[in-house]
Design a protein that fits this description.
This is 10854_t:CDS:1. This protein is 90% helix and 0% strand. It is mainly alpha-helical. It has a domain at 25-52.
């Protein structure tokens, strides 16, 4: 069965959206990790200040 150009476009669009979703998820996870580390570091700094 020959695929029509329209079907090709549709399937590649879905793949593109899927890739974008994965990228977004990875970016968000990366951001959350960085944010979490930053928050931990800040609370450590506060603790050090309290002890002085």
């Amino acid at each position: 069965k020959e695929e029509s150009p329209l079907e090709n476009i549709e399937s590649s669009n879905i793949e593109q959206q899927f890739d974008n979703q994965i990228l977004m998820t990875l970016q968000i996870e990366k951001f959350q990790k960085i944010f979490a580390q930053h928050t931990i570091k800040e609370s450590d700094d506060e603790r050090e200040t309290d002890e002085k």
